[in-house]
Amino acid sequence: MDDASDPDDDIRLVWHPLLGEYLVQSPGRMQRREGMADCPFCADLTSGRVPPGTRAWIRPNDFPALRPPVGECYVLIYSAEHDRTFADLRADEALQVIGLWQDMHAELAPRYACVMSWETSGAEIGQTQPHPHGQTYGVAVVPPLLARELGVSSCVERTGWLSCHSTPATRMRCTSTRADM
Ligand SMILES: [Zn+2]
């Protein structure tokens, strides 16, 4: 790779012919600010990037794994307080975060086959910023695992069973609150 090239230029989905699925190639993610003392999310407030008094907000991911038209990546900060986790939020604050998730879905769903929100919690699995936050990606393809989950959801809606292909002895009955073997 040319040293002067922008790593974002190389962001793409790569078809893996043996697995039969797309993989993300995103070399720009290697530039993330791991172990930095300065918090970019607290800096959103001190720099005026978000208005004073903001409790929760969405920002573009500074090191997106995907770029349009393949995808878009956003970060949702739960609280202005650096150490406050989602579990620490009051009910009204949690509802505000859920409202932001819904806003992101409404924004991205018209453009992408898949919109997913999640939290990566803990350095062991890749969290680089300790300020509690979640991620939302819009992706041009539905990842195989989500496709299988959608298939099961459709099955449950149609039949009430967690598997459309199992035998009566092994299939699981799904109710609104629990799954029984
Ligand atoms: Zn912070």
Description of the molecule:
With 181 residues, this protein is of the alpha+beta class. It has two domains: 7-142, HIT family, subunit A (2-Layer Sandwich), CATH 3.30.428; 143-181, no CATH class. It is built from three helices and eight strands. The strands form three sheets. The protein has a four-stranded antiparallel sheet, with helices on one face. It is globular. The protein binds zinc ion. Residues 39, 41-42, 82, 131 line the site of zinc ion.
Low-pLDDT sequence parts: 175-181
The helix/strand series, from N terminus to C terminus, equals EEHEEHEEHEE
- How large is the count of helical segments? 3
Specify the overall morphology. globular
Structural class category: alpha+beta
Q: What share of residues is helical? A: 10-25%
How would you summarize the topology of this molecule?
Elements: E1 12-16, E2 21-25, H1 40-46, E3 57-60, E4 71-77, H2 91-108, E5 114-118, E6 133-139, H3 144-159, E7 173-174, E8 179-180
The structure holds zinc ion.
Zinc ion (ZN) binds at residues 39, 41-42, 82, 131.
